[in-house]
Amino acid sequence: MLGVPPMLTLDEIVCERDGRGLFAPVSISVHAGDYVELMGPNGAGKSTLLRTLAGLHSRYSGAFDGVDCLFQGHRLGLDGLLTPLENFAWFVGLEDQDEDRERCLDALQRTGVLDKAYQPCNEMSAGQQRRVAMARWLLSSRSLWLLDEPLTALDASAQQVLAEIIVEHCQAGGAVVCATHSELPIAQKRSLKLEAFQSKADGPALGGDQSGESFQE
Amino acid sequence: MLGVPPMLTLDEIVCERDGRGLFAPVSISVHAGDYVELMGPNGAGKSTLLRTLAGLHSRYSGAFDGVDCLFQGHRLGLDGLLTPLENFAWFVGLEDQDEDRERCLDALQRTGVLDKAYQPCNEMSAGQQRRVAMARWLLSSRSLWLLDEPLTALDASAQQVLAEIIVEHCQAGGAVVCATHSELPIAQKRSLKLEAFQSKADGPALGGDQSGESFQE
Amino acid sequence: MLSTSLKRLWHKLGSPRWFFALTENWVKAAGLSALVLLLWGAVWGLGFAPADYQQGNSFRIMYVHVPAAMLAQSLYIAMGVAGFIGLVWRMKLTDVAISACLPLGMVITALALFSGSVWGRPTWGSWWEWDGRTVSTLVLFFLYVGIYALREAIADQDLRARASALVAMVGTINIPIIKYSVEWWNTLHQPASFGLTQKPAMPSEMWLPLLVMVLGFYAFAAFIVLVRMRTEILNREMGARWVRDWIQVRSER
Amino acid sequence: MSGLLRREWQVALRAKGAVINPVAFLLLSTTLFVIAAPDTVSSDAAAGILWTLVLLTQLLALDAMYRRDFDSGVLEQTLVGSQVPFVAVLTRIFMQWLSTGFIMTLAGPALGILLGLPVETAPAIALAMLLGTPALSFLGSIGASVTVGFSRGGVILALLVLPLFLPTLIFGAALVAAAEAGSSVMPQVYALSLISLIALAIAPFATLAGLKISLEMQ
Amino acid sequence: MSGLLRREWQVALRAKGAVINPVAFLLLSTTLFVIAAPDTVSSDAAAGILWTLVLLTQLLALDAMYRRDFDSGVLEQTLVGSQVPFVAVLTRIFMQWLSTGFIMTLAGPALGILLGLPVETAPAIALAMLLGTPALSFLGSIGASVTVGFSRGGVILALLVLPLFLPTLIFGAALVAAAEAGSSVMPQVYALSLISLIALAIAPFATLAGLKISLEMQ
Ligand code: HEM
Ligand SMILES: Nc1ncnc2c1ncn2[C@@H]1O[C@H](COP(=O)(O)OP(=O)(O)OP(=O)(O)O)[C@@H](O)[C@H]1O
Ligand SMILES: Nc1ncnc2c1ncn2[C@@H]1O[C@H](COP(=O)(O)OP(=O)(O)OP(=O)(O)O)[C@@H](O)[C@H]1O
Ligand SMILES: [Mg+2]
Ligand SMILES: [Mg+2]
Prior knowledge:
- Chain A has helices spanning 46-53, 84-94, 101-111, 126-139, 156-171, 213-216, and strands at 8-17, 20-21, 26-30, 35-39, 60-66, 69-72, 144-148, 175-179, 190-193.
- Chain A is α/β, with parallel strands linked by helices.
- Chain A has a 5-stranded parallel β-sheet, with helices on both faces. In chain A, strands 1, 2, 3 and 5 form a 4-stranded antiparallel β-sheet that branches.
- In chain A, α5 (156-171) links the parallel β7 and β8.
- The relative contact order of chain A is 0.22.
- Chains D and E meet through α2, α3 and α8 of D and α2, α3 and α8 of E.
- One adenosine-5'-triphosphate sits between chains A (17-18, 22, 40, 42-48) and B (123-128, 153, 155).
């Protein structure tokens, strides 16, 4: 792996909300093949960090640098009016590839929702929608995946599939950063813990006069 | 427990969507003190069944009968613009009790979000919002709880608290039906499995019979 | 005891199968009388009724216009009543009725508007006048479109039934208010235009064919609604055994 | 009970500008009108224009009436095992009126004058809107409850409720016109009150039914 | 690329009535208008009235423009690591115009006649709307992108964009009036085209920026 530039490097990064840092500065460099588990108690800042890396949250100190990423947040990003296949067609359109019906169906097969291929997404159960979103990752050409609690609503078998998909993606030279509360059954993992500040007061004071706000407004 | 009427009885109930049954008929009677774990693969019909019992889904055959229930669905039912305390005040208003600031704060303390007591709910993390919703159960006077995947977004400690809260509620003579994919650390549990039909064709064809509705109204 | 037997009766009335068997012959009757009445009225009205001393032959549009206008309102009220029954007694049949009345009602209302404005050209000298009846008909059309859009937007059959029943009911409650207010507004603002505000005193050989046409229109509507309801029932009950039996009997004939 | 009312208040205040906005919108569209069609600024048409814009403003506000609660699941909580769903709905409708109809009533006279109505008609305008706008909120609530589940409810809502608004529109405008002409306004007063009362009678039940239907759509 | 366009189509068709409804609403509000203020049905004011109602219709449609995609997270996917966010936004705006502005253009002449405009002005009405409505969609998209994150965006959106709509309103009405008076319409044609072009130039960038801001709100 020497000489190969890392896919993602965080350097002393601290996400901020309402002008205060959320967690102690974190630094890490993620290389091809890495699976990084982002751990931390509720409210530690996992989602915010992932959104930051995806470019959806610009209030942070420190720096990061990375390749194009695939982001899967709490909101699935499926159009409820459209069927999985239609959603995929749109999604690959975003990456400027043109769709390949075969691959789409294989992906759905893989995540076990092939029978829903022609049914609008808002007529599926929570877990089935998650599975469709999972299938979509397989179609993406992006090598860095940022996943926020992907286990949500998945049953045992689907969780197994999820783990396999991640492992394969890493073996294929991709990298995955995944925020989760229950560890995935994956052997080789690196873990990134977000330490909350001991007390809010310890937060890096950026305009300390606002310190009250997080409680008031 | 003899002589005491059950809190909830399902009798050969089958939830329907688009005119087809979702799962093989289930029958069970839940008594005070029972914790029932509702299991089943994605798309089995857990959420639909819970919504049915809560009166939010009227397309079913078979019958059920139960006491007033507390329903916690995928959507938390917290007003994002309001603080936890304000949400609680409204909630107890629904039950026609008047609020008790002390109890509210204790509840938040219990679920570990006391420091967010005066912060609007949409400014909290996914897990913190879940915790607030959990705290709300403690304020309710309803004895039958219907929980849909309550573990979502909760970290380890919060999951522990959840289990304790459920156990206490059952010991206090309440009953809990909880749909989940990962078992809770609770010793005494009954488990209700939703078996999917072998093939969709096996679904009961709906004739003119509207037997379900007699209970519904 | 009594209440349960009543419930059973309602369920019987509400059962599509029962209705299907019952209306087997009604369809033919309605269709036949519609044919006869419409032919009779049309020939009489268009052929033999004397030309109007003011309007000449253009008045003959009346034989389409007036029945259409009347039917348009009746059909909506019918939907409202069906909706009410459906909401209160949870009948499957009532939604079948609504789904049958809705498109027909829209078309008939459009016909009333069209025939009216065609008639307006010679009599008013304009395609459209803002007048009590014109407005209430236009609003009626909007009410139809509203329910139609609503039904289009809801996928699930049962929910579609309940939603449109509710809306049709509320709309029907409001129709009298709307009609009254519009008529009142009309006398307030508009110069009374011929033939709309006061009934034209017609000689009997003019209004008798009109009467026949009105009856014909209603018979025709009954025919269409029944046919549509029956086909809709077959669609919805496709799985049920009695439908298969019925189809078999048909094919054996 | 008091909790319900209080929450409505807090939300109204918290959802920034929810109270001021309807008036702002009304004012804005009125101005547009005066700019676009200056010739219409003749006192005889003013009442009608004002009322039409009130209707459209109300429509815009109605679309949001239940959407937040629907998306957040608050609606489920309101209906499931609640002791007082009926009260809850009534409270909501009342607050909706307070934050639109009532506010517009306060602003109405000024706008009327902006549109060229004589100052003497100011009380008549206020009276007309005070009596008429409740009907808009009540009937509108029914439409909103049925359409809240849709992705593009806005325009279907318009199709459903605008026809029902028509009588209010007519008598509301007529009341002002009558006051202007110096004739008695009692007929219109009775008519508007009657309409609002009928709306009040059917709205809560119909709204509850509509909300239940919408909740089943998920 | 083609995938993007196709999706917009599918949604437009799937979200039932999204296409027919704007016209229905326009027709409806026109009717209300004429009923409420029959005396205004004089050709001199008709153009202005028509345009005002077009603006309000557009406003109603704009509120829903990005909301679904925002709530479902589709917006995040459109912006994160997409090769063609710019194209995506343009496609969306174009479809929005097609399903509102363009449709209204088709209906415009009929409504003008309904409002008492002479039949001869029909082509002028169509021309004015064809040139003017794109500006509404482009500028409106900016406002919609900024307000999509709010709980009660509707009226704030109105406050933001209605002022921007003003020039279109004025020249659009003027064009029809000119055609009616039989004088040359070229000045207004140039003006409207210019406005639409400027809007086209700034809208995509501004919209992208606005959407990014809205997405940061969660
Ligand atoms: C678009 C234009 C018009 C519409 C929407 C319209 C609508 C109506 C309606 C709703 C009725 C009442 C039917 C009933 O009794 O329930 C009616 C009746 C009638 N209309 Fe029209 N009308 C229009 C134009 C005309 C014109 C131009 C004439 C002839 C000058 C006309 C002559 C009549 C007559 C003679 C009746 C039957 C007499 C009566 O019922 O009072 N209508 N029309
Ligand atoms: N809104 C809907 N319209 C139509 N069908 C639906 C809808 N929601 C769910 N379904 C179907 O009903 C079935 C049961 O859905 P439900 O959400 O109850 O499953 P579930 O057991 O909760 O699954 P999960 O574990 O993923 O939450 C699924 O097969 C799904 O396809
Ligand atoms: N929209 C918001 N506005 C203001 N503060 C917020 C907002 N969302 C989250 N926060 C605060 O930022 C902190 C981090 O939130 P974040 O969602 O990143 O935590 P998390 O690690 O994802 O928690 P969870 O495990 O519950 O998802 C929390 O303390 C929360 O209070
Ligand atoms: Mg999170
Ligand atoms: Mg579920």
